Hints:
Elements: E1 9-13, H1 22-25, H2 30-33, E2 38-40, H3 62-79, E3 85-90, H4 91-104, E4 109-115, H5 135-143, H6 153-167, H7 172-179, E5 199-204, H8 212-221, E6 225-230, H9 237-240, H10 242-254
Parallel strand pairs: 1-2, 1-3, 3-4, 4-5, 5-6
Helix pairs in contact: 3-4, 5-6
Amino acid sequence: xxxxxxxxxxxxxxxxxxxxxxxxxxxxxxxxxxxxxxxxxxxxxxxxxxxxxxxxxxxxxxxxxxxxxxxxxxxxxxxxxxxxxxxxxxxxxxxxxxxxxxxxxxxxxxxxxxxxxxxxxxxxxxxxxxxxxxxxxxxxxxxxxxxxxxxxxxxxxxxxxxxxxxxxxxxxxxxxxxxxxxxxxxxxxxxxxxxxxxxxxxxxxxxxxxxxxxxxxxxxxxxxxxxxxxxxxxxxxxxxxxxxxxxxxxxxxxx
Length: 255
């Protein structure tokens, strides 16, 4: 999307599930958010249009990927000659990148909304989808992200078909496994005490990926943060409760 200087710029950073891209991640809320913001929706490194075909040179571990994606967003802002922007960061990819970006360049961020714990929870006990790379496995993986699969059946079926194909593109599995590998010894995550911009942490009450306690601990560690637990929502708050999600984002970022 092009940038319109009459509205604040909002950079939407998608989540980190297998086969994800920005277009699919934000389809339920982008039209409404675009009424109030100039929205930029990049594919993050390792996903969508940003999949490298080989495994050489990939970051390893969540902290390194968060920094690499933070640098990617900074380059995007520089190319667009954008000064200060707002961020929405979804879960372990976008949320972690948003926190790393604020810690590294707080002058480039106004406010941020992060979702689902922003990658500060434990690593998954097994790698989603790639241990059983089938269409049924992809559908089941996405089903865990919503509160009630019956309410989202059509959307989940559509996304599963697209994400299955994208998850099998050359380089996608290597990037995904590297992202969820343990951080190498000596690697440090972003310093949460350095995340000095105002942050709203949204967490679904019925999140089956991370308990709301993950976001409670995150908010306690951030200098300027507050938590909103969204009743009835799963990990994908923007899918389960799109209108409420947009209301929280608009109220916080435009205040």
